[in-house]
Amino acid sequence: MPIEATLGSIGRMNQTVEPSHHHLPAAFMRRLRRILPADGLLQKSTEVAAYECDGLPVYRARPRAVALPRIAAEVGQVLALCAEYQVPVVARGAGTGLSGGALPHPEGIVLSLARMNRILALDPDNRTARLEPGVRNLAVSEAARSHGLFYAPDPSSQIACTIGGNVAENAGGVHCLKYGLTTHNILALKFFDADGALHEIGGPTGEWPLDLAALLTGSEGLLGVVVEATVRLWPKPPSTVAYLAAFRSLEAAAASVSEVVALGLVPAGLELMDGLALSAAQAYTGIAYPEGSAAVVLAEVDGDDLTVALEGERLRAIFTAQGAFAVEQAVSDEDRRRLWLGRKSAFPAVGRLAPDYYCMDGTIPRRSLVAVLTEIGELSRRYGLPVANVFHAGDGNLHPLILYDAAIQGQLEQVEALGADILRLCLVHGGTISGEHGVGVEKLDGMCAQFTAAELATFHALKSAFDPHHLLNPGKAVPTPARCVEAGGMHVHGGHQPFPHLERF
Ligand SMILES: Cc1cc2nc3c(=O)[nH]c(=O)nc-3n(C[C@H](O)[C@H](O)[C@H](O)COP(=O)(O)OP(=O)(O)OC[C@H]3O[C@@H](n4cnc5c(N)ncnc54)[C@H](O)[C@@H]3O)c2cc1C
Asked: 220 and 135 share a domain?
């Protein structure tokens, strides 16, 4: 049964969907056990409970079992067995995803890649690393550091999230403005399709006639299970300077970001934190921001000394012209680390302001930053729900964090309505419903609003080409036409349609 069919009953807070009484065949379980290492199969409800959600705990479901392979061959065998018995499979890395992508299927198994965490090769001459999918993002840069290299995509969850999960979500991060997203930093992939057949795409130089790696990257576990990634490493720039520009209004901070981009500067990072995020980060990390800051922009420039000096001066001039009342500079590694710490800790810091928070993820053209942030402020007031903004401003990738208390009846529904309004704003301004956190189960209705029926049909055709029986993460990321009709209709391109179908999304 596709998970979409059960979405209405997928558990909200503390209401986990239990596996149905329909058991997986005993022969399937016997053979699964034989494939995996002795400690590689979890079945007891106390053991599988840890896998019932990802970083979006409003959706919960308990899988039949969790498979923990240690080598790629075991992954292929597990998938072949699942294909034989038509058992749904949800791949999982660290479970830090924020759209329910790793939410288990209640009639299927979770395939955890977490134990496949070896760095298979690090080639400093060619600046590449070959990685198993369970390698933590930060571990790559840690291993490359002694060679003067680093891995650029740096999601704030990098201490925990895995390369496999990064590939599946096309993860971004602070440094992706200059160095590209995950998709720009993948040279080759090995993955198993739903039948357990191994495919290799790309190569050490990243050149191939058909860019299938770009198709796999961001496919949210729907097309295949990645068992190896060859990634690009970057030489550590000789010079790096970070800036913190403090503003008395959120609008002025946002306008300065638009101006930086409009003038053609491409800093290594360009992030924005509003007043609520700042006070949370200050309380959490002890970092003191300039008194009276309504918002700060964090920027980093890197390269040779001359470039860094020139770009730094231009940035400072733009910030000042846009009304920054303080511009601080961090040169040493330690000072830069401190400056970025507040940004990197912002999500958990905001998490202390209220019992719960809901992290939104959408994109907008950077010229619309001021208008959209102003409108989000108005929506926040209208719904009576505080919203903290901390996001990749240079990429136009918003992350409004809605604060709420799930214990208050009806408040989660209010949050979802506010979230849908924010995504509608993104679309109206020419943006998208997801920047880097994916669609998962969370944004299926939003997909109906963003894409036409023909585009969604193409996505379904692609899915069927890789996974004809829809066993890999079924029901996620691409809504069925029936769901879209229920959600209020399909998107119609042309610009004259005032998004009537968004009314209910
Ligand atoms: C505090 C916090 C901060 C975050 N900051 C950022 C950020 O700055 N940028 C950003 O992009 N994201 C961010 N995220 C979201 C999340 O960390 C990323 O989406 C990350 O890439 C997920 O990796 P994971 O290993 O946890 O994957 P999981 O959550 O386990 O899985 C995510 C998806 O990938 C699929 N998957 C996992 N492994 C494989 C595999 N080997 N093959 C095929 N499919 C697979 C799963 O089925 C699922 O659909 C943040 C999350 C948190 C909690």
From this structure: yes
**Three-state helix/strand/coil letters over 181-245:** CHHHHEEEEEEECCCCCEEEEECCCCCCCCCHHHHHCCCCCCCCEEEEEEEECEECCCEEEEEEE
Q: Is the CB of 91 under 6 A from ligand 1?
A: yes
User: 164 near 91, Cβ under 8 Å?
Assistant: yes
Tell me the one-letter amino acid at 180: G
Ligand 1 atom closest to residue 158's alpha carbon, by position in its atom list: 17
User: Is the pTM above the cut of 0.90?
Assistant: yes
Contact 71, 113 (CB under 8 A): no
Helices 26-35 and 72-85 pack at an angle, to 10 degrees, of 170
Pocket test for ligand 1, best of 54, 70, 92 (most atoms within 8 A of CB): 92
CATH of the domain at 137: 3.30.465.10
> Using one digit for the tens of pLDDT, what is the confidence trace for 12-69?
444 566 665 568 999 999 999 999 999 999 999 999 999 999 999 989 999 999 999 9
Domain that holds residue 228: 119-235
